[in-house]
Structure formats: C-alpha cells, structure tokens
Specification:
homodimer, alpha+beta, about 30% helix
Chain lengths: ~280, ~280
C-alpha cells in the first residue's frame, strides 16, 4: 500500500500524472526516515527540513505536519510494519505542469508516502572515492531534491569498486560526503565535518551528531576537508537517517580502525536513537 | 492524449507508478523535438542521442526508433497537431525500483511521449547571468537527464531579472550556456562555443550549427569562454531544438547587435530547418 495525496491505496492502483514535474524535471524534494515498531524517528526534524526546502523552491506544502505524521502511522499499519524496523519515504513534487521549465503560477503539489522493511545497520562500512563531483555551485547540493541521479551513478561506481559507500568531492576537490550520507573525520583530537557551503546535504543525523559530539566534550568543528585531511584521519563515520552513524572500516585500499572517541560517539548516538524510539 | 509505454490514452487516465525511479530519483533522460505540419525535425539525431545517453546510464531502450517515430505521428494526429508548429517530448525513465539508490538488475523502463502546440521563435532574445552553476564534474551536465531542477531555478532567476534566458557558468567560472540552450559567441572573426568538457549539454542544434558555420566558411572553434570573452563578443546566439538559433539583443545591461556573420548563420540554419520540414 502507498499513500498518494491523501489516499491510501494499493501501489498498482496509485497514479502519478505523466506530466508531473517531479517525473519530467525532478522538480521536488524527499525525506527518508527510519521507523521502529511503528514510530518514525525525528519526524518533526524531517518535516521541518522538507518544509524549509519547499519554501526555498516555492512549492506550497499540501498537507500539515500532523496529517503527514498520521498518514505515516496509517501506512505502516496497512503494510504490517508496526513491529521491527522500517523505512519511510516522503516525496513532494511541484505537481502537474505545462511544457517548459517555468512552474505554473499556482502549483498543485503531489505528496507521496511509501514504507518498506529495512534491516539493521552494519557495524562498519567500506567506501571508495568516485569520480563524479557534487555541485557546490547549486543550492540543490544542500537539499534532498529529486535530482538524485548523480548519487545513483556514484553509488553504482562504488559498488563496482567493491565498496558500499561512494565518497564524493566537489569541483574544488573538497570532500563533500557520501552518495547516501554525510561524513565525520577524527583528525588528531578534533572531529570535523565539511560545512554546507562545500555542497553538503543538510543532514538531520549530521545535525544530531554535531550536538552529541559537543555533549561528549569532543573538539567538534565544521571545516573544509581535502583528501590529504582524510589520509591523516584516525577514523571516519558515515551518517544518515537510516544507518545512523557507522564507522568506516576501509576507504579504498586503506584499512581504518575505530578510535575510542568515535566508538563513544556512535554508542551515544545509538542510545539517543533508542530513547527516541521509546526503549 | 499522451503516449505511455505503447498505449495512446487521455492524459487523465495515463499513469506513472509512484515508485518509478524517474519520479523518485530523476533516473532517466528526455528529448525535446520541434515538429512542423506533423513532421518531427531531426528525429533520428534525437533518438540516437537518447539511445547513447541510455547506454551511458545502463537503461535498456524499451522501443525501437521506428516504433517511437510511429508513436509521435499517431500522437500528433490524436492531438490535432498535424498543421503548424508543435513540440514533442520523449521521456525515458529506468522504471519502477525498490527503495534505495541502486537500480534493479533488470530494469523495466518507462517511455512517455507528449505533444503540445508551440509558437514560432522570436527574432531576438534577452539573457541574464544567474548564480547557479552547472556541474562540470558530472556526466549529467552533458546529458538531457531528468535532473533539470537547476535549470528550472536558473530560468526562474532570469525571469525575475527581467530576461528570457539564463546564462550559466560552471564552478570554474567558465561559460556553459543557457538554462535551455547552448551558446555561440562571435569574437573578432571567430565563432566559438564551449567544449562539452566544460559541462555543456551535447545539443543537437549545437552540432548542426557547428557544421553550418563550416559551410559558411566561418572560423569556428570549440573553445572555453569566460565572462571577459563574452564582453568582447560582437554577437551571441542561443540555440536549442525548439528555438533554432536566435541572436541575443541584450545580456544583462548590455545591448547587443547582430553582426552580418551571425545573421547569415541564423538564416542558413532557418533554411536548413525549412528543408528538413519539407518546404
């Protein structure tokens, strides 16, 4: 079952108009949320980010946060996802439009919510540096827009290289993060993550990790990183809403360990997620 | 009426699956063609480019070129577009996929063809330089992928600045072209257009213009351009499949004239299009 514009219905009967600008131009945004035992995690943070992005693109939000949260609950129930781990995806597009780039003056946006099972995150992950660069010169690099084909190609390149995550640089050669997550690097005794201006997705888990690192008394900074900085790093994390915070065990041919400071942060984040999930 | 996966049907009954990767990730490509009196122009060139792009992305073409051309004819007839000017759009997506970035192993692509009226191109156009950069570090900058939201934002910025076309640079500050077309600059007695490596869309009209410039004996070169080069330019053209080749009458606050060499090229291109259309 899938939820489309206020109606819950079997996926095979659900319909997007072929002239929807989400389909024709990637004109929209999405959110991916983890859910546990029927409870979506950090739903307010995700819907606030979606709403900020929609403001930036000039897409009116067609439903209130409360309606979207209720839809998620109804959808998980209908798909028997109220026990264990699930993933939710909220997709907002600008809706149907005439030919051409310019949006209609009064858009009638499309909102889709889908739910699926997910498995628990692994203890560690591997990554490979890929060639495709992220566009620091576009506001879309900071938004979860429907323009995700660069990330698809990057992820495919990483898998071809025998890795699980794709490390991406921007056009200046600065580290941006992974095709499906943000990056944190422990360098000396400082924990660093690149600033949004480098073309970094404004990640919900990235925000939470920055705050949790402060709670642990880590020397946390948003700072541009290049590959030489990663070479010096004592440990690296990949973070996103489904994985949480996962240390890298390998970047290209280099094996990485998990220094105590990172292990502590990962474990604090896990406890924080469990408390959010109501354990 | 719209054509979806082999069937011609009323748009309101046509359906894209909400989990189609064209909608969820912009995972696909499109082509826009001009048609005149029911004849699509340069259909072989457009379908060859679509097929090359699909190869590059690993999307199998679900229909033969002949079937697509027949569908275009049927669609224009059904929409009473066999007289006068029309625009056709062919959209290819990788089709339905499970959650996540990685495509299914055996994708079942979606192909949509839409047709609409269009008006004749104006004699001249105006342009404004916009802030959003094109990503020279991604292969998508050279393909007409469904990731077109940067172009949408650029076009909106140009319109806000009182112009009709959005001039875009890449992250190195090099000129790429317009949000909806390629650029040609007459500098001294040389006609220049930026190389694909600068993040330039591999335009069908761009190719034709390069060949036609050769026929006119113009000193034609693919060469990187920066804003200082455009300041020195004696004239500028915007080119795409619907507009053809149109001189700029204004770039930001600078008025531009149309030197005889550009007027000749525009007129040769127009004759070439008319002969393609069967006049």
């Amino acid at each position: 079952m899938i939820w489309v514009d206020g109606t819950l219905l079997p996926r095979r009967r659900a319909r997007i108009d072929p002239t929807d600008r989400g389909f024709t131009l990637g004109d929209g945004l999405f959110e991916t949320l983890a859910a546990e035992n029927g409870k979506p995690l950090h739903v307010a943070d995700h819907l606030a980010r979606l709403s900020r992005g929609a403001d930036e693109l000039g897409i009116p939000m067609p439903f209130e946060a409360g309606e979207i949260a209720a839809a998620m609950a109804e959808l998980m129930k209908a798909n028997e996802l109220t026990q264990g781990l699930a993933a939710l995806r909220v997709t907002l597009s600008r809706g149907v439009g005439a030919r051409g780039l310019l949006p209609p003056e009064s858009p009638s946006p499309t909102l889709v919510i889908a739910a699926a099972h997910r498995v628990a995150a692994p203890e560690t992950l591997s990554a490979a540096l890929v060639e495709i660069r992220r566009n620091e010169g576009s506001p879309l690099s900071r938004l979860k827009s429907l323009n995700y084909l660069d990330n698809v190609l990057a992820q495919q390149a990483a898998v071809r290289a025998g890795a699980e995550e794709a490390l991406m640089l921007n056009n200046k050669g600065r580290v941006v993060g992974f095709a499906r997550g943000n990056i944190f690097a422990l360098i000396g005794d400082g924990l660093m993550t690149p600033p949004l201006a480098d073309g970094v997705l404004d990640g919900i888990t990235r925000h939470r990790l920055i705050r949790l690192a402060g709670r642990l008394g880590l020397n946390m900074a948003e700072h541009s990183l290049d590959l030489a900085d990663l070479d010096r790093a004592r440990g690296l994390l990949v973070t996103n809403s489904l994985l949480g915070a996962v240390p890298l065990a390998r970047l290209d041919r280099r094996a990485l360990s998990v220094p105590p400071a990172l292990a502590q942060l990962v474990s604090l984040h896990r406890r924080d997620e469990m408390s959010e999930a109501g354990h």
